[in-house]
Amino acid sequence: MMRQPDSQNIPDAYRVFRVPRDDGDEAARILLPRDVVADLIKRDSARRSDDLAAETAARRNATTEKESAASAIGRSETPPCAVLGKTPLFDWADWEQMAAQSRVTIGREQKTRDEGLLNKLQVLGRYRSHTFASTAMHELERLASEAPHFRDVVEDIMDALALASRAKAPIQLTPILLSGAPGIGKTYFTNGLARCLGVPTHRVAMDSSQGGGELVGSASFWSNTQIGTVFKALALGDHVSPLIILDEIDKAPVRSHYNPLEPLHGLLEPETARHFKDASFPLPMDASHVLWIATANGLEPLDQPLRSRFRIYAITGPTREQSQQMARTIADSALKALKCKARIRIDDSAIEALADCSPRQQHQLIQRALARAVRLRGKNIGAELIQSHDRPQEKKKRSIGFL
After folding, report:
1. CB count, 10 Å around CB of 391?
2. What is the pLDDT of residue 222?
3. Which fold has domain 320-390?
4. What is the reported pLDDT for 305?
5. For position 333, what pLDDT does the model report?
6. Average pLDDT of each block of 10 consecutive residues along the chain (403 residues)?
7. Structure confidence at residue 7 (pLDDT)
8. What is residue 393's predicted lDDT score, i.e. its pLDDT?
9. Using alpha carbons only, what angle is made at residue 297 by residues 293 and 300, rounded to the nearest 5 degrees?
């Protein structure tokens, strides 16, 4: 039988270490060097910390499973906005299922990509912000002043933003379709809107789209499968309401087997969008809060079911006074961007000369006049720098609008 060490005859370099017995008897005492005892105590403390972390994670997972189960039977016990200012985008149960599928994926490149996406989603979490900057309302009001012929659009967006702020919930905005002749400022307006809202913005050139894959991803059985714009905007972004701009939707090359407009029938319908799945990475997620803005020169190419999903605004050209106001705003922005607002002044004669131009022409002419003034070291931009051959030679009759 091992002799129990006598605590009164222990050298300074050693320490008595108690070892519990499995049979419940009094703990055995053994003599160990002090540095060994210190290491054992450190390891025991680390083990206790790991056990505590595992217990905390288990409780968290149990809470998540309880929330998912409650959602499945239609009576969620956790409010949709349980995390202040944020909204759930997907469920962890679906993430786990995707992770399991990824482990049995045959293609090495796709498996590596899927694992990378799963890791990113794990880091970002399931919640996305639904709040907007405190300056959004002020910026939108300024945009309405800069582009007065879009005021109706801006005010409807401001109404939806105010309602969401009061409800502390995601914004609910019917998809918008801006229809109007080329050059009246649709692109200028959508760029300004993106700046005002301050949310991630994705612009899709529908006139060059080769199919629905650009929006909703390409089928996973293709070797070069790719995720779509909607997945990128939501899953890899930080906001539940990113802005997706569909440029020239009326020019989308519709073919029998590759129709880039087809996915929009589901994406623009809130009930369907709540269960969106990307074709390349089919993790179910809520895409019902995406902000959609489409532009078109005309409505004829669009079928009626697709039109019915939009709120259509017939945008006409600005009045002469509105055009002068826009020219002044564009000029001030250009001077500010070039950091020469204090050195160069744009005369009223130049603004008057620009009044007959479209917003696109105004922007081009102001940029050219500024470049000329900088090269010649001029301090004023007058009508003479707005070259006559660049301006419309005759006033065109302004349209009233159409639907």
Report:
1. 16
2. 61
3. Helicase, Ruva Protein; domain 3 (1.10.8)
4. 95
5. 81
6. 52 64 57 71 72 68 53 41 80 94 82 93 95 94 90 96 94 96 90 94 91 85 81 96 96 83 95 95 96 96 95 92 86 80 79 84 86 81 66 44 39
7. 52
8. 47
9. 100
Distance CA 191, CA 178 (A): 13
Tokens matching residue 305: 């079911």
Q: CB under 8 Å to 129, separation ≥6 — which residues?
A: 85, 86, 87, 238, 239, 240
Hey, where are the domains in the chain? 1-78, 136-314, 320-390
pLDDT of residue 68: 52
Structure tokens at 293: 């803005």
| Cα distance between the two ends of the chain | 101
- Return the pLDDT at 6: 52
Greatest pairwise CA separation for the chain in angstroms: 115
In CATH terms, the superfamily for domain 136-314 is: P-loop containing nucleotide triphosphate hydrolases (3.40.50.300)
